[in-house]
Structures are given as structure tokens and as C-alpha cells.
Amino acid sequence: MMASAARTILVVDDDPSIRKVLSLGLERLGYVTRLAVNGQEGLDLVAGGTVDPDCILLDIRMPLLSGRDALPKLRELKPLTPVIMLTAYNDLATGLEAMKNGAFDYLVKPSRLEHIAETIARAIRYRDIVGEKLEQDRKNEEYRLSLEQGMHSKSVELSETYEKLKAANMQTVQALAETIEAKDPYTQGHCERVRRLAVRLARELQLPESQIEPLEFAALLHDIGKIGIPERILNKVGALEDEELEVIRMHPIIGAQILSSVEFFAPAINGIRHHHERWDGKGYPDGVAGEGIDPLARIIALADTFDAMAQSRPYRKALPVEAVLDEIRRERSGQFSPEVVDAFFNARLYDEYFELARIDR
Question: pTM of this prediction?
């Protein structure tokens, strides 16, 4: 895996052997590396403009200024620059806490160079996508204002501008969804199927038109937090340990945190954060119940669960159709909003789903 266009990686670690190994390994892959021995030195390099990193590798435990304390300051200076935390195994809980506070991901030391490089590439890809989107938004806004202020502006031109903006938004979201599925290839197509079913449910529920686009964003990106989940946990065959389950249950928080820096995602944030909440209050991460659950999340919860049961995984085959439908019925007012379940069955959306997904029934 070769880096493109000489991306700069700032490595902040008090262990000279770690700095040397990372620097040599990453430079062999085509990256430019800059090194700092603690959080304060790393912060000074960024604040002073000496280094403009594309990605930061930040050790959690360091003297003078720890990675935990440097993280919010680096995020303030460079809100779009992904920070990947480096942690010892017994610092796992601290690494997860750092992700809640804005870290893109964490790596347990020692990690294979290949895994480190893959994580960096994924982080930079996310940064590039969001950066391009913000620049496109700026250009679209300038164009929109020029039309509004111009003597010859017409409503049709404004409408076309809005449609271009919507298309750019969707392209950005679809690119991010592909990043999720690159992490977990066994779920290829899952995000799009969830989006499609969620939109159909929303139409049946007569969701306001203004909510459809945020719903599509939330459905496509509901699992974006999984980019912060170690692959050994994400793709584990068999039952998860309690600690591993805790890590998995962080992905709605991580996803909401990742997208919180981009304003146009704001209407979709709670749809992502709440998509594993349950109508009976027994879900996660916040344990909210009933009407306290974001309306978009109520729809996504059913679409996500239905697709997961209806599709095969490397460790199990897809469930029989009737078993899937029985489970949805059984969880009415348990896992799912009764209103959403009723809409699903009244419109027989499962027939449409299976036809479109071309599943062998």
C-alpha cells in the first residue's frame, strides 16, 4: 500500500523506539513523517504552523502533556484532521473514552504496520471527503447568493442550484458509506438496502418531506462508527466477550461524534446515535425509550435489523423469511416502534425488499 501525494503524518509518542519504527515504516510506504516526544511538542508544532499534518498518531500516556489532554486542543486547532490514538492493551477503556472525545480511531500497541497503514488511509479518506464537501458547500453558497442578489436570478436557477447541492451531499454520503463497507466487506450493500427500506417506511408513515434527505444520510451512515471498531472484534466469529460487546456498543456514539463537525449532517446525527435504542428503553447507548427516540432512528432500527437477519454472514446463513417476519412482529413495542412495525406490514414492504435485493426465497 503506497501513500499518495506525500501525505504528512505527525507521530507523537514518548517512546523513541515506537517513533523510529513508525517513522521508518510509514516513510517506506511513501508518507512524510514528523515526530514529537510528547503532547505539548506536538501541539506546538501544529499551533506554530511548523507541521500541517494530514493525520496524527497520538500516544495516550506521555509526560508533560498526555495524549488525552492534547486531543481536544489538537481538535480545536485542526477540526478536520483525524487523530488516531495509540494505547497499550490495558489502556483500552481510555482509548474508547478518547474516541468519545473526538479521536478518529485507536490502535493497540504493538500493531502491524499494515493495519496502521490501513487505518491511516481510511482516516485520510474520510478527511478528504469531508473537506471536499465543505469546499463544495462554500462554492454552492456563493453561487446561490450571487443568483439571489443578481438582477436576472430566476426561481428555476435557484432550484437547479439546490438540486446540485443535494446531489453533492448524496455523493459525499455514499462515498462515506463505501468507507464503512470497506472495513466490513461482508456487509457490502447493507447501507444502501437500509436506506431504500427506510425511505419506503418513511413514505408510508407520511414523514415530512424535509426529513427524507436527513433520513437517507442517517440510514447510509448509521454504522459509520464501526470504522473506529477493531476488525478483530468487528469480524469475530462466535460470542463476544463483555469487554468486546462494550466496544461494539460504542459505534453509535463514535459515528455521531465523527459527523458532528460537519454542519450539514446535523439533522441526521440523532438518527445515527439512536439507531440501537429500543422502544422499551433497553437499548444503547443512552437507554432512551418510546417517543424519546429520534423519529429517524425508529425507522432505521427496523430497516437495519430486518436487513441483518435477511442477509447471510460468514458465520451464519440468512434466516428464513417467516422467521425474520415473526421476529419483527414479536418485537413490536419491544425493540421497535409499534407504528413503524404496523407500516412495514400494512404495506408489505418485505415483498418489495426481497424482490429488489434478489434474495432466493
Answer: 0.65
Please work out, in degrees rounded to the nearest 5, the angle formed at the alpha carbon of residue 37 by the alpha carbons of 13 and 71. 60
DSSP 282-322: --SSS---GGGS-HHHHHHHHHHHHHHHHS-BTTBPPPPHH
Last residue of a domain, one of 94, 123, 152: 123
Of 123, 138, 172, which residue constitutes the final position of a domain? Answer: 123
- Tens-place pLDDT, residues 286-301: 999 999 999 999 999 9
User: Which structural domain, as residue segments, surrounds residue 290?
Assistant: 184-357
Return d(Cα 206, Cα 273) in angstroms, integer.
23
The grid coordinates of residue 154 equal: 430566476
Q: State pLDDT tens for residues 157-174.
A: 444 544 555 555 666 666
DSSP 319: P
What is the rounded CA–CA span in Å between residue 30 and residue 254?
Answer: 29
Other CB atoms within a 10 A radius of the CB of residue 4 amount to 9
